[in-house]
C-alpha cells in the first residue's frame, strides 16, 4: 500500500486551509501524511500526528513545495493548494491509478465547491466554459482519461523518486512553476503522464470580476513568458487565441477604414464571436436557471479574453516579476486576487 505525502504551501494558516484540514481528516485512505509549509513558525493543534507543520520563510510556492517534498516519507507526493479540499475517496482513487507501476504522475480535476457563493460560482462557470479554458476544461470539471504534458499543482501526484530525479520545482517562477516541473518530468521520462477524472478535489475560485481577472492577468503574463522560453508546452494555438482576438478587435476598424473590403470580414468575425458568447450564456441559463448568472458568465468570458490576451502579449515582451500574494496578518487570508 503506497504512502502519500500531501504537500500544501501557504503563507499563513487561514480559513481555507482549516477547511482543507477538516476534509483531509475524513479521507478513507489512511496511509498518508500532510506537510504544511508556512512563512513563519506557527502553532496549530491538528489533533492528528500525521499532520506536520514546517516553516520556510517568505519564499515562493515552488520553493515551499520543494521544502515539503524534502520532508516527505511517502512514495507518492500529492500536491494540493491550501484553498482546495478533497473528496473522501481522493487518495483511494489515486492509489488505484498508481497500481500501474508505469504511471509516474497523475492529474485530477479541481471543481468549484458545491457551497460556493454566487460570484465564486460564476467564476467557476467561466473556467468550465470551452470559450474561456479551450482544451483545458477537464482541469475544472471531470473529463475523459487521457495523457497530458502540463497540469497545475492544485491536484497533482508525482512519484517521489521521479520528482527528486528532476530536481523538484523551479524557484524563479510563480505562477508557472508547475508547468516547468511537468515539462521536466515529461522530458525525463520521454512520455506524457496521466489525467484521470476520479481523484476529485474542490478548488475555491476568485470571485468575479476583479479578483478573478487579477488571477487571469498573472496566468496570461506567465504563459506569454513561457511561450517565449518553453515552446514545448506553451506555443499552442489556444494560448495565442485571446491575444489574436484583442489585436483583431482593436486593429480591425482601422484596417477596414484603410481597406474597406475588410469590413465584411471584421463584422462577420465580430458577429460570430458574439453568437458564440451568447450561446454560452444560454447554456449557463439552461443549466442554472439563472438569468443574472448567465449575464455574469457572458461578460466574464469576454473580460477573461481581454485580460488574458493583453497580458499574454506583455509576458512575451517582458519577464513578469515574482511577487507573492499579500496576506492579512491577523486572519492569514489572502488579499485581493
TrEMBL record:
Q: Which domain of life is it from?
A: Bacteria
What InterPro entries does UniProt report for this protein, alphabetically?
Answer: Glyco_trans_2-like (IPR001173), Glycosyltransf_2 (IPR050834), Nucleotide-diphossugar_trans (IPR029044)
> Mind telling me which residue stretches traverse the membrane in this protein?
239-259, 265-286, 293-317
Task: List UniProt keywords, sorted A-Z.
Answer: Membrane, Transferase, Transmembrane, Transmembrane helix
- A Pfam family (short name) is Glycos_transf_2
Q: Key word Metal-binding present in the record?
A: no
One MF annotation (Gene Ontology) recorded for this entry:
transferase activity
Question: For the Glycosyltransferase 2-like domain, which residue ranges apply?
Answer: 5-131
Protein name according to UniProt: Glycosyl transferase
Amino acid at each position: 500500500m503506497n504512502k502519500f505525502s500531501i504537500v500544501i504551501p501557504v503563507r499563513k494558516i487561514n480559513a481555507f486551509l482549516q477547511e482543507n484540514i477538516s476534509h483531509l481528516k475524513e479521507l478513507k485512505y489512511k496511509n498518508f501524511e500532510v506537510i504544511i509549509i508556512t512563512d513563519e513558525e506557527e502553532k496549530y493543534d491538528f489533533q492528528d500526528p500525521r499532520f506536520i507543520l514546517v516553516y520556510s520563510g517568505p519564499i515562493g510556492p515552488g520553493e515551499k513545495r520543494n521544502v515539503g517534498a524534502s520532508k516527505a516519507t511517502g512514495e507518492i507526493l500529492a500536491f494540493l493548494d491550501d484553498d482546495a479540499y478533497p473528496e473522501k475517496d481522493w487518495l483511494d482513487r489515486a492509489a488505484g491509478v498508481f497500481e500501474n507501476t508505469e504511471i509516474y504522475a497523475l492529474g485530477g480535476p479541481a471543481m468549484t465547491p458545491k457551497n460556493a457563493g454566487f460570484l465564486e460560482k460564476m467564476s467557476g462557470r467561466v473556467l468550465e466554459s470551452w470559450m474561456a479554458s479551450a482544451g483545458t476544461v477537464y482541469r475544472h470539471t471531470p473529463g475523459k482519461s487521457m495523457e497530458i504534458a502540463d497540469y497545475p499543482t492544485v491536484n497533482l501526484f508525482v512519484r517521489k523518486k521521479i520528482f527528486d530525479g528532476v530536481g523538484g520545482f523551479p524557484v524563479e517562477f510563480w505562477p508557472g512553476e508547475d508547468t516547468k516541473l511537468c515539462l521536466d518530468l515529461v522530458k525525463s521520462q520521454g512520455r506524457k503522464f496521466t489525467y484521470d477524472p476520479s481523484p476529485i478535489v474542490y478548488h475555491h475560485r476568485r470571485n468575479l470580476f476583479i479578483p478573478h481577472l487579477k488571477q487571469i492577468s498573472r496566468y496570461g503574463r506567465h504563459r506569454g513568458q513561457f511561450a517565449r522560453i518553453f515552446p514545448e508546452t506553451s506555443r499552442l494555438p489556444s494560448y495565442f487565441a485571446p491575444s489574436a482576438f484583442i489585436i483583431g478587435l482593436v486593429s480591425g476598424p482601422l484596417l477596414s477604414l484603410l481597406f474597406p473590403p475588410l469590413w465584411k470580414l471584421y463584422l462577420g468575425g465580430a458577429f460570430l464571436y458574439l453568437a458564440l458568447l451568447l450561446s454560452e450564456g444560454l447554456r449557463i441559463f439552461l443549466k442554472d436557471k439563472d438569468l443574472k448568472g448567465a449575464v455574469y458568465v457572458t461578460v466574464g468570458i469576454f473580460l477573461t479574453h481581454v485580460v488574458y490576451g493583453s497580458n499574454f502579449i506583455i509576458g512575451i515582451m517582458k519577464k513578469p516579476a515574482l511577487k507573492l500574494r499579500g496576506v492579512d496578518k491577523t486572519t492569514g487570508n489572502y488579499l485581493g486576487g
